[in-house]
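Entry 12.
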Amino acid sequence: MEGKAHIDDKGWTVEIRIPFSQFRFKLKDMDKWGIDIERLIARKHEDDFLVYIPKNSNVLFRDLHSLRG
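Predicted 3D structure (tokens):
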């Protein structure tokens, strides 16, 4: 896996390249993906997610954002 991080006046961003060989499905099956992003700040005991997940929820992957490719 390769990645680059960048900090500017708008904040922190990262771009990560994940080789298709690391996925466990065939390329022809790739049409629509469910995606979520988590940010963990251990020193603050803070977890942030792109998709809101209530703390009392026992469902982790419910309303993921869609990514087509």
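Annotation: The chain has a mean pLDDT of 78. The CA atoms of residues 39 and 65 lie 16 Å apart.
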